[in-house]
Prior knowledge:
The protein is α+β, with helices and mostly antiparallel strands. The protein has a single domain, classed as Alpha-Beta Plaits (2-Layer Sandwich). The chain has three helices and eight strands; from the N terminus they run E-E-E-H-E-E-E-E-H-H-E. The protein has helices at residues 29-40, 82-91, 93-96, and strands at residues 7-19, 23-24, 27-28, 45-49, 52-53, 61-62, 73-80, 100-110. A four-stranded antiparallel beta sheet has the order 4-7-1-8, with helices on one face. Strand 5 (52-53) and strand 6 form a beta hairpin. Belongs to the UPF0166 family. Pfam families: DUF190 (PF02641).
Amino acid sequence: xxxxxxxxxxxSRLTVLLGExxxxxHRPRYHEIVRRARDTGLAGASVWRGVEGYGVSSHIHTARLxxxxxxxxxxxxxxxxxxRLRAFVESNADLLDSxxxxxxxxxxxxxxxx
Length: 114
């Protein structure tokens, strides 16, 4: 691919914050979010497990004592076109109704995909 074809292009980042033990129909909610993102044809999704955080309860969950770690934070990140991400959220309201969802503008370096 020529240097001229490689450029930064606008996109959006969908960030979903939840707890690792948030379930959806007896399965991890983050797994269902990733599965639905793939099935929708979104560019990609990643899940990160946090080491400390708190939510609505204001109770801090931490991994400092690894044997006692529970309810640690999880972050799901999906980057794609803004309209596609908005449509994904709207069509999956049942899955995303009890978590924090944020949409942010980003730029993606295009031209390195294989």
